[in-house]
Structure formats: C-alpha cells, structure tokens
Design goal:
This protein has one helix and ten strands, in the order ββββββαββββ. With 179 residues, the protein is mainly beta. Strands 1, 2, 3, 4, 5, 6, 7, 8, 9 and 10 form a ten-stranded antiparallel beta sheet that branches.
Length: 179
C-alpha cells in the first residue's frame, strides 16, 4: 500500500502585513486528492517560532487547535494521511494513479477560520510524490498563497511524504506464476 502524508508545518504572512491584529489566528486547509474528495485538515493555531511575536516576517508554526505543545507530542501536528492500496482498489489501475500524480497539481484552499474567509490557494505539484523506485520520499517546500485576484497572501510550508506500508495481508503463494 502507498501511504501519503500531507503535513502543514508553518504559515508565513505576506510582507505587506504590518498589524498583528490582521494576522489569522486559526487556519484550516481544504482540498481533494485522487478519489478522496473534500478533505479537511484539523483546525490549527499559529504559534510564533521565537519570542518576538511582533515580528511578522518570521513563519508561524502550525499546531492543532487545543493540543498541548511539547516537542514530544506528535498529536499537535497538522496533517492528512491517505492510504492507497492498488491490490484492493481493483477498479482503479495503478498506472492511472501514477498518471494522475505526474500530470496534476493539487489546489489547497487556505481558510482563516475565525473570519470565515479564504486567504487563497496553494498549488502543489503532485509529481513530487512519485518515489521512482525509492522506498520513501520526503519533500519539504514552501508554497505561495494567492487569492482569486492573484494577490499574494503569504506562504505555507508543507512536507510531503510517500512510502510503502506493510499491509496485514499475508503473501499469497501462487505456483502458476512460476511455470
């Protein structure tokens, strides 16, 4: 099975933002991927990554709203994990899935939850998820947020992970394959 994880790490406000009160306090991410439709991240809060909360030039770390913030607590992480097993999905050809990854970009809507306002979208090229024979890939990139009028509204730091997971299905011996 393929395990794909989209982890939202940080929000970087636009340089034009001068007032801390204009900074969103809670964000959510919405997108569709392959046959998984209308995916929503948990609501997350912005946490300054240094002691100077007034410095709006630094990225703000994202963590789940209501989670306890410690370095060991992984429940604070904001991510969506999708598992795809081509051996179970018999109606879908694995080649179709790879073609989808190589030819598409995923549009992720970034929402200011408290203002019920869309900040815009980030475009994530899905070709970054293709492992090309590797057991695991990990990408960490920053994607710019643009609204519908193509105004820059900051950036999101996102990590993409794709790896093969062992399934609970035992290996099935088929002697006819050896003849």
């Amino acid at each position: 099975a393929q395990s794909i994880k989209f982890q939202f790490l940080a929000y970087k406000p636009p340089a034009t933002l001068k007032n801390i009160n204009d900074l969103p306090t809670r964000l959510q991410f919405k997108f569709s991927f392959w046959t998984f439709h209308d995916l929503e991240s948990p609501i997350c809060k912005l946490l300054p990554n240094d002691k100077d909360i007034q410095n709006l030039n630094n990225p703000f770390i994202l963590h789940k709203d209501g989670s306890i913030i410690t370095s060991e607590n992984t429940e604070k992480d904001v991510y969506i994990r999708l598992d795809y097993d081509p051996s179970v999905e018999t109606s879908i050809d694995f080649k179709e899935f790879i073609t989808y990854l190589t030819t598409r970009q995923m549009s992720v809507e970034v929402i200011d939850v408290d203002r019920a306002l869309s900040l815009g979208h980030i475009k994530v090229p899905l070709k970054d998820l293709i492992k090309q024979g590797k057991p695991k890939i990990y990408q960490h990139k920053e994607y710019d947020i643009y609204d519908y009028n193509f105004n820059y509204n900051g950036a999101i730091q996102l990590s993409l992970t794709c790896n093969e997971e062992n399934t609970s299905r035992p290996f099935k011996y088929q002697p006819n394959l050896l003849r």
